[in-house]
Design brief:
By secondary structure, the protein is an alpha+beta fold. Helix content is 67%, strand content 10%. The protein is built from eleven helices and seven strands. The strands form two sheets. It has a five-stranded mixed β-sheet with strand order 2-3-1-6-7, sandwiched between helices.
């Protein structure tokens, strides 16, 4: 399956964030020599922290460039957290206590919500929220410092970030479903079939097992549209899809190949077992009763063509061509039959 466009956009966003951070960190490093006092080793510690952040950011950038999106995203979030708490505990008298909840916690939580799975965001948010409470209890706080408002603010940001994370992930799942599912039947679509057959064939070659393809065609489908209308034809298509899902294994990939034609990818099965499965589907089709607007749409029969790797082809295109040829022979010899 092709990578989702959403994931590609996130990778580009992560790359831009890395470039921004790699450009910003040297500027902050230069400012450190003018702002932070040299006494007490504070300047040295701060420089070490910034150099460490720069090196790890560069590493995260390279990981993303190599296609390791999740490790790169996780490292990026950890970098934000390291910069957050590292700069806080170095205490450079820059009013960091006031800015800490508004800037650092917010950035780290939002970074997690953008780049990481929901459970990671929840865990990181909870840990930082508890850590923040501990810091407020252990460190001296100015009398006029509004602690309740601070905690409410951080909690609100956390809830909003987690909610946006959930909505984004849910949208990704929906987009993925739209990309690979047929809208009428709910079966996998032609795009999914092409990509999955290629991937499964590659694994079959690597692991040395049989891969079979069953092409299914509804006999004389045009008559349902001509006699009862296209809605009746859709009803037949949906009934056939349900039948195929019922009488195939969970490991099989059942796809709507196009129009009234379906394809079933069968892995780890002997030729005799695939023939038995195809014959079972053919016989069950004859029992199928479909009605539309009170009209019985009549008997339904299938023609089925089968091909298998390695005997009928060594590429997915060859398997499809062989199965199509077998299906054509089945229809040519009278329909309602399985041809290998």
């Amino acid at each position: 399956m092709e990578k989702l466009e959403v994931l590609g956009n996130l990778k580009v966003l992560l790359k831009r964030l890395h470039i921004f951070m790699l450009g910003l960190l040297p500027c902050i490093l230069a400012m450190a020599f003018f702002i932070i006092p040299t006494a007490g080793g504070e300047q040295r510690d701060y420089v070490i922290l910034l150099l460490g952040l720069f090196v790890f950011t560069l590493f995260a950038y390279l990981l993303n460039g190599k296609g390791y999106y999740f490790p790169s995203a996780l490292l990026t979030v950890l970098l934000v957290i390291l910069g957050t708490w590292g700069s806080f505990f170095l205490e450079y008298h820059l009013g960091i206590l006031d800015l800490f909840p508004l800037v650092y916690v917010t950035i780290s939580i939002m970074a997690a919500s953008i780049f990481l799975p929901l459970i990671y965001t929840i865990v990181l948010t909870l840990l930082q929220f508890l850590f923040l409470i501990a810091v407020l209890l252990l460190f001296p706080i100015p009398v006029d410092f509004n602690v309740p408002s601070l905690l409410v603010f951080v909690l609100t940001v956390s809830i909003l970030s987690i909610s946006s994370n959930y909505l984004r992930k849910n949208q990704v799942v929906q987009l993925q479903g739209y990309a690979i599912k047929d809208h009428l039947t709910g079966l996998f679509n032609r795009r999914y079939f092409d990509e999955t057959l290629e991937q499964k064939l590659f694994r079959a070659k690597q692991q040395d097992y049989t891969l079979s393809l069953i092409m299914v065609d509804i006999d004389k489908f045009k008559q349902y549209n001509d006699q009862f209308g296209h809605d009746a034809g859709d009803a037949v298509i949906k009934a056939v899809a349900n039948l195929l899902l019922t009488y195939t294994d969970l490991e099989d990939s059942v796809c709507r190949y196009g129009g009234d034609e379906f394809a079933i990818i069968v892995s780890h099965s002997k030729t005799t077992e695939v023939l038995q499965e195809a014959e079972k589907i053919r016989l069950e089709a004859k029992k199928l009763i479909v009605s539309h607007n009170g009209h019985d749409l009549g008997p339904i029969t299938f023609s089925l063509g089968i091909s298998s790797f390695p005997n009928q082809g060594n590429t997915w295109q060859a398997l499809v061509a062989s199965a199509d040829q077998a299906l054509f022979r089945a229809k040519q010899e009278g329909r309602d039959r399985v041809f290998f």
